[in-house]
Amino acid sequence: MAIIPSVKPSRVAICAHPFAQHDPEPRRLLEATGAQLIDNPWGRRPRADELVAFLGEQKAQVVVAGSEPYEAALFAALPQLELVARTGIGLDAIDLAAAQAHGVAVCHTPDGPSDSAAELTIGLMISLARQIRAADADLRAGRWRRRIGWLLGARRIGVLGLGRIGQRVARALGALGAQVRATDIDPGVAPTARELGVELVSLDRLLAESEVLTLHVPLTPETRGLIDARALSALPPGALLINAARGAVVDEAALLAALESGRLGGAALDVFAEEPYRGPLAGREDVLLTCHMGSCTEEGRLAMERGAAEAVAAWLGGQPPAHRVV
Length: 326
Hints:
Elements: E1 11-14, H1 25-31, E2 36-39, H2 48-58, E3 62-65, H3 72-77, E4 83-86, H4 96-101, E5 105-107, H5 114-129, H6 132-140, E6 156-160, H7 164-176, E7 179-183, H8 190-196, E8 199-200, H9 203-209, E9 212-215, H10 229-234, E10 239-243, H11 252-260, E11 264-269, E12 287-289, H12 298-316
Parallel strand pairs: 1-2, 1-3, 3-4, 4-5, 6-7, 6-9, 7-8, 9-10, 10-11, 11-12
Helix pairs in contact: 1-12, 5-7
């Protein structure tokens, strides 16, 4: 992308963390605009109050955002803010209505993390199905125990959400020979489902027939707590749950109860309602946990960061940013 220098003096706050740690290209793209760059001072994801104070003190007009919260109070307190460029696909941490009401543009990088998140999902699924974590713990403790797991290619697998990531997961599962069904609220995914050999079914049928259920929906009012006690009880006995989407899609208390009762065979979670996660699921051997690292490959981070930097450069050069949602 040819960088157009900024048409006016600008201050760009890089709040996403990490940013340009593995490849300096995204930072060079931002520097080429001539804007003043202000780095994340915390070395972590900022809290809402920290973010408002920092952006206000720095008088930032543009933000390169991670998954930190951009709430209505922030937009009201920062009249100078023009653009939030999100490094990633999820927009649940940004109050889009408030951004629009205050004239703040918002864009994201929906394709950047998709391959990485899909690969992690498959990795979690295989590890859970083959009990790799437990086998590793056995061996380290001096126990030579060959565990009997599941062959995914012989299982019925449900994909809840056939968007960018869900499609990639379904394609990989199809290559393994699995029976893949999916549910999506968008009827426009039907041609892609046919191409992938995926049968689209109702949510009730997906739950009833999925020996493995993998979640790939955004967090919205409709999906918050969607996988609750009722949904978990509808799964076949011993089913496995994979969540690399958003933590609050799953009722964690209901999940714990389903595991304790033996109704559910196991779960692999990359995301949680509150992060960092410190809850009781961490004490269970039948649960595999990772720290919201779906996008965390060198290639995935670069794609997200480059996309956000290019969006900022376009905006500062008077051009429309790609993947603008507000």
